[in-house]
Amino acid sequence: MNKENNILCCVWTGKGCGPGNYIGEGSCIPCEPGRYSTAPDSEWCEPCWQGSYAENMENPGSMWCNSCQAGTYASSQGMTSCDPCPPGQYTQSEGMNTCQYCLAGYYCPGGGTNMIPCPAGNFTADQGSSFCDSCPPGQFASAEGSTECTQCNASTYASGVGSTECQPCAAGTIASSAGMNECQPCAAGTIASSAGMNECTPCSPGTFNSNPGLDFCQPCQPGYHCGGGGVAMIPCHAGYFTLHESSISCDPCPPGLFAPVEGLDSCDVCPPGLVSLSEGQDSCDSCPPGTIAPYTAMSVCETCPPGKYNPNHGETMCQDCPAGTYSGDAGSSSCEPCPPGTYSVEAASSCDILRCPTHWEQEKFPRFGKCLKSGNFIFDYFKLFFKDK
After folding, report:
1. Residue 117: is its pLDDT beyond 90?
2. Half-sphere exposure of 294 (CA within 13 A, CB side)
C-alpha cells in the first residue's frame, strides 16, 4: 500500500480482490478516478463523497478519498479534483463541499483560506466581494475592515480617493458643509482667520479685504473709511477727511477749513480774504464787499466798521472813507458824500454842520465846505479853520 497517494496496489491471487479494486468479469479491476473501495472482493467502487476527491491517474485503484484542502471544495460526489473557491468566497477548513461568502468589510480574491480586511481608506458594503472599493473624495475610512465610508465634517475635506482621514481647511478657506472634497476661498471682504473653519467672517468696520482667500483684513488708510465687510477703501468726499487709519466714517472739515478733493487726511486752511462758513466745505468763499477776512482759518467775514468801507470781494482790510465822505453803517461797500453845509475828516462815520464865522454866510449854491464873505468874497473855510493846525 502506498499511503502517501492513498492507493492500495493489489495483485490478483485468484482468491479475491483487495481494497481499491472490484471484481468484474473474472478479474480485479482498479477503481476508476473519483471512486474508491475499502473492502476486499468489492463488487463495485463507491464515488468519493462531497468535499473529497480521488485522482487515480498515476496509480489506479483508490481505497479511500482525499479531503479537499482549505481554500478548495468539491460540491459533487465522484470528484477527481477540488475546485478553488471562486472570488468573493473562502474556506478555512478541509473537506468542504461549499465555500463561504466574505463578509462586508472584507474581500476574498479567490482560492483563499481567510477573509482579508479592507485596508483603511477602503470598504465593502456587501458580502461576497473579491475586492474593496476606495472611499470617494469627501469621505474617509480610518480603520481597516470598514463597511462604509464616513463623510468629512464641515471645515474639513478629503480631495482624493482612498482617504484615511480628512484635512482641515487652510486659513482663508472653508468647507461649509459635510462631505467636501475641496475647500472654498473666502470671498473678498471676508476672511477665515484660522485653519478648520466652516464659515467666513466679514471684515470688521474700519478694515477691508480686496482679494479672496485671505486670513486677515487690512486697516483703512487715513483719508478713507471702511464699513463692515468692505472689499475696498472708500475715499472721503471733498470737504471731509480722516486723520487716523481704521476709520469707519469721515469727519467734516470744521468751519474755517476746507478739503478741495476726495481722499484727504487733513483739511486746508482758508487764506486771508476767504472763509468757510460751515463744516464740510470743499472750497472757501470770498468775503463780499463791506466785509473782510484779515486772518487765516476764518469762518465768518468781519464787517467794516462805520467810517470804513470795502468795495471789493475777498479783501483783508477795510479802507478809510476820504475826507468829505462818510459811512454811517457797518458793512459799507462805499462812502457817501457829505450833504451841503456839512463836512467830514477821513474815516468819518457822519458829517458835521459847516458853521461860517461872523460876517460870513453860507454859499447859497455851495460846493464842498465853502463860506462866502460879505461882498461875494469866496473864502475857503477849511483853509481858515485848519490854518494853524
Report:
1. yes
2. 8
